[in-house]
Amino acid sequence: MDIVLVPGLWLDASSWDLVVPHLTTAGHTPRPLTLPGLESAETDRSGVHVADQVAAVVAAIDSSSGPVTLVGHSMGCAVAGAALDARVDKVAAVVYVGGWPAEPGMIPAKNFPSDGADLPPVPWEEFDEADVRDLDRATFEALLRPSPASLTSEPFELGDERRYSVPAVFVCPEYTAADLQEWVADGTESVAAIPKHKEVTYIDLPTGHWPQLTKPTELAAIIDQSIGRSGA
């Protein structure tokens, strides 16, 4: 199966490099994406919008001959969720890693500071210890480049509630599945989409916020198992 891998803030397709070989060995065709605005640190991001990032994922789905599995990481979960909304009939399952889809009108990155057209990476020192657990600082920082500042101000537009019928897996790295379920039960606004899904699986993957870098073998196994669970 084609697996479309959507990175989160500040990362490009190479952030999935450690996961890709395991998915290939499992018989899948992984398709890691570099979203618009993330081509390089020097990219002009002034004309890059949320809709452009969603469109890039939709294009990857459309170029696949059959159903795909969508995998989003962190902010990439919101982008993947919007692409799912646009192509419900072509997505067999969706895996949200360290994040969750947005609801219509939400701006998940609204609290991040921007710098002109850029949303610069958060300095290492400002991350919580849980976020960077198991993570090599030099390796991580070498991957980083700014994301488009539009992510801090433009809401996600969604309109097809059939997206809630697609099997969804929530991978919990720096927080636990119990934590996430508690946020859902408490009615936390940022996770408002989760209880609307008809088929939800929560999976713990204890590590930092970037398991594609710190636990790639385990993350690939979860993605592979999610495909089997969906019946795809």
Keywords:
232 residues, alpha/beta, Rossmann fold, six-stranded parallel beta sheet, 16% strand, globular
Question: Would you write up a description of this structure?
Answer:
- The model has no long low-confidence stretch (mean pLDDT 97).
- The longest helix has 15 residues, at 216-230.
- It is built from 7 helices and 8 strands, in the order βαβαβαββαββαβαα.
- Helix 5 (177-185) links the parallel strand 7 (168-172) and strand 8.
- 28% of the residues lie in helices and 16% in strands.
- Strands 2-1-3-4-7-8 form a 6-stranded parallel beta sheet, sandwiched between helices. It has a two-stranded antiparallel sheet with strand order 5-6.
- It has 232 residues and is an alpha/beta fold.
- It has a single domain, classed as Alpha/Beta hydrolase fold, catalytic domain (Rossmann fold), CATH 3.40.50.1820.
Detail the topology: elements first, then pairings.
Blueprint: E1 2-6, H1 20-25, E2 29-32, H2 50-62, E3 68-73, H3 75-86, E4 91-97, E5 118-119, H4 137-143, E6 147-148, E7 168-172, H5 177-185, E8 200-204, H6 211-214, H7 216-230
Parallel strand pairs: 1-2, 1-3, 3-4, 4-7, 7-8
Antiparallel strand pairs: 5-6
Helix pairs in contact: 2-3
